[in-house]
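Now read these lines:
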Amino acid sequence: MLEGNWKRAIFALVLIALLALGGLVTQAASVDPIVMPGNPDCADLGYDMELKVEPVASGTYTDGVLIVELEVYDPYFDWESNIGVSAVIVKGGPNANVYVYDPAATEDEGLIAPINPNTGKPYGLSHISFCYVPVEEELTVTKTVETSFVREHEWNIDKSIRTDNGHLLCTVHALIHLYEDGSGDEYAYWTIDLEYKDYINRDLKIWGDITIVNTGPSDAVITGVDDMLNGITATVNCPVEFPSTLPMGETLECTYKAYVDTMIEGYNVVTVTTERDVYTGKAPIIWGEPAEELYKTVNVMDEAFLRFPDVKYREFGPVTAESKQFTYKEWVSYEEFSGLCGEGAPENQHWWWHNRAWIVETGQEAYASLVLHIDCP
């Protein structure tokens, strides 16, 4: 780099001497070209970077950093670039025209090769070299990570019945025989088993903001923004279409979101790609408390039909995230149910009483049946 500075200093002295001589300088575009003998290149002028165009034709040319758009209308041409150019060498005939820009320029028009003294017109364009000093590009990329999910608790409910005598109908249903003398009267016992199973986390979402700040000394052309969550690609939304130029000192705000199946851990990494470099930003994925919690606490309702014709309701709970058993009993007697043996009732009639228990919040339900065999007179 020190050697390049010396070369540029020497070249400046040469320019002053040539300007003093007068006739070697021709009038062009926005700056006066300096005629240099032979075939100079950018290194001769003290510049490390050179984009050479040969043959010369209209089009777009790049070396991966500098991008130049040429419009040629022989013997003239115009040019435009994405970053500053310090000098343009136009070779034609035995010499070259050198156009020096201070400060560096990003466009000019009407450039030519040296004048042919025999014709008074410019030589044909042999090749063009664009000399430049690499401009550092710098983006600062940061992001936020937000998480949310719904936690749903899962339950089971079951209901059963037994009697003192333990009689069963078809080996399944509890059975009580009621006789007029009361010999069959007995207790019926109901059991409600409320089982807490576990919880599941669903509707897991990760989202946040992506902030891209151009903290460098030049504009940056962003070609893409990608966001990854431990191998999962997030959807990124930016208010521009890529490629997009982010001017020096400006900020681009994007958002992202992703739905995942499990509580993934690690880092959320965003990658910002420009025409010249790649930048990343990351933030840890941290899961907090659920945004909504369903069925952690439940209540149980029970309905029993043993007080004909009324229905008796019972409430149990609340119960929070644990298994619980509820029991109750009823005295079942002939005296209480003999009213079913009214006129026209068949002898030895079976009466089915279906009893239901359910979880109020989830709607899950369970049934148990008691069969009454009433010995009607």
In short: The chain has three domains: 2-132, 139-149+202-284, 152-200+294-374. The first strand starts at residue 34 and ends at 37. The helical segments are 2-21, 334-337.
